[in-house]
Task: inverse folding
């Protein structure tokens, strides 16, 4: 053994191995805290193993300073090989392997939540009814103007948080995409709360969320009326409830003011409220209807799409329509032939308006909102005409929701919202 070269190898292997173990422990801690990966027990165990490797690296360094300096090249080859193996295992292999496996395999940890009101069977039933409540699609004011807002309270933790506008009679708030307002906050439950306009009074109801909802620092355990300037705590954010100036002119109120015999309230004249619909106006599926019931409705040729269009110009996964708090947005999903709204090629999400034509390849779908603006006349039946060569068909295709059949319209029938 070359005694002059061995100290250099020991310096590289020993001290760098010790540094490697310490760096791996620090990197594990940063990864676990910043990216919220692994359970506390998993991250603590991984960091402890790396620190233990750093402690064990003290032994070969001590060996170099004691035995090798005294005995030098007279040391046996087996002893030297054991020291080098020790350095390789505890200085390099184990710390780096632990770091790589933790980064690759550790799953996102669950947020730490404090105890809040427990969801009762009654709240579960209320939530199920709210998810299907038509009031989610009924505007409080004409032209879908907001009637109130949850303005962010100006503090350090609220930087970059948007103001929440309330437009509908019922607004669901939560972390799941089927809510009307989706909040990306780990302390918000999947379905957290609702705000409902009930006979001119805004009422907030918590759905038994894990962290609860606070109004003026008081936990909400039952429906609570909201008053202007009330402070609402949702997750890690604080909002101030503010009414927006203007009359509350709902579609129902406007209709009830129509003249009738003896001034009778004519609520029976209200049109049925239903989700917006896409209607095929050309191609093989002319007249087919799809109600947009899902938070995200996929369109394409593949059988997994909610709206399946068996056309050669349509990609397998061509486009999608996403429901947001302020309306429905169409976007292209990197299709071959592209997607257009009317004559505009989609390069970013586009908000759909009543009567818009969504061109998916060469298939045209008309967007019919659940309740068109009062000042927008409904197009006559002959306004929607399939282009030349379009084949009318009464056959059904993939339904708007799994297990339900499409309802093709008769020729010349106007789509209902």
Result:
């Amino acid at each position: 053994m070359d005694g002059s070269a061995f100290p250099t190898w020991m310096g590289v292997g020993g001290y760098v191995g010790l540094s490697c173990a310490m760096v791996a422990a620090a990197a594990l801690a940063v990864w676990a805290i910043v990216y919220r990966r692994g359970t506390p027990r998993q991250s603590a165990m991984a960091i402890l193993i790396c620190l233990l490797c750093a402690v064990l690296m003290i032994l070969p360094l001590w060996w170099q300073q004691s035995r090798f300096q005294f005995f030098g090249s007279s040391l046996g080859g087996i002893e030297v090989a054991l020291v080098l193996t020790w350095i390789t295992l505890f200085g390099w292999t184990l710390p780096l392997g632990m770091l790589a496996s933790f980064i690759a395999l550790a799953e996102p940890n669950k947020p730490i939540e404090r105890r809040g009101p427990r969801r009762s069977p009654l709240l579960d039933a209320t939530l199920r009814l709210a998810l299907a409540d038509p009031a989610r699609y009924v505007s409080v004011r004409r032209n879908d103007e907001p009637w109130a807002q949850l303005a962010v309270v100006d503090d350090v933790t609220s930087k970059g948080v948007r103001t929440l506008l309330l437009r509908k009679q019922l607004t669901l708030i939560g972390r799941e995409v089927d809510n009307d307002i989706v909040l990306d906050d780990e302390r918000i439950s999947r379905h957290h709360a609702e705000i409902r306009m009930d006979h001119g009074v805004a009422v907030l109801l918590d759905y038994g969320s894990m962290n609860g909802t606070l109004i003026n620092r008081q936990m909400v355990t039952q429906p609570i009326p909201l008053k202007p300037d009330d402070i609402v705590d949702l997750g890690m954010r604080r909002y101030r409830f503010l009414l927006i100036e203007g009359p509350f002119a709902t579609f129902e109120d406007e209709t009830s003011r129509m003249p009738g015999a003896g001034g009778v309230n004519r609520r029976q004249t209200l049109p049925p409220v239903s989700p917006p619909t896409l209607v095929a106006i050309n191609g093989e599926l002319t007249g087919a209807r799809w109600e947009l019931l899902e938070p995200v409705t996929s369109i394409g040729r593949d059988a997994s799409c909610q709206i399946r269009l068996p056309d050669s110009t349509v990609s397998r996964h061509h486009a999608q329509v996403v429901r947001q708090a302020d309306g429905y947005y169409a976007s292209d999903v990197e299709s071959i032939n592209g997607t257009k709204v009317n004559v505009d090629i989609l390069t970013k999400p586009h908000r759909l308006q009543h009567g818009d034509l969504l061109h998916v390849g060469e298939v045209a779908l008309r967007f019919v909102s659940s309740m068109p603006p009062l000042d927008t006349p409904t197009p006559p039946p002959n306004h929607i005409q399939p282009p030349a060569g379009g084949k009318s068909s009464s056959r059904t295709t993939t339904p708007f929701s799994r297990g339900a059949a499409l309802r093709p319209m008769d020729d010349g029938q106007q789509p209902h919202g």
Remarks:
- Residues 124 and 379 are 41 Å apart (CA to CA).
- Residues 112-117, 248-272, 372-417 have pLDDT under 50 and may be disordered.
- The first strand starts at residue 148 and ends at 152.
- Helices lie at 6-34, 40-56, 58-71, 77-105, 121-131, 251-256.
